[in-house]
Description:
4 helices
Amino acid sequence: MWWWNDFWPMPWVFGPLMMLFFMALCMGMMWFMMRGMGGRGGHYTNAVDILNERFARGELTQSEYEERRRVLKA
C-alpha cells in the first residue's frame, strides 16, 4: 500500500483517532443509559415504599393500605 501516503499524508493518525472516537462513543452511551435509570418515577427500594407513597397520595383507603401491607409483610 505504498500509494496510501499519496492519498493521505498521515496514515498513522487514523488508528488513534478511531480509538478515541470509539471510547468517547462508549462513554457517551454509558452516561446516557445511567442518566436514564435515575430520573423517571423516583427510586423505590421495595414494594412497601410504593405502597406507602400511594397511601400518602390518597390513592388507597386505610383498609386497602392495611390489607396490602399485611399481604406484603407475609
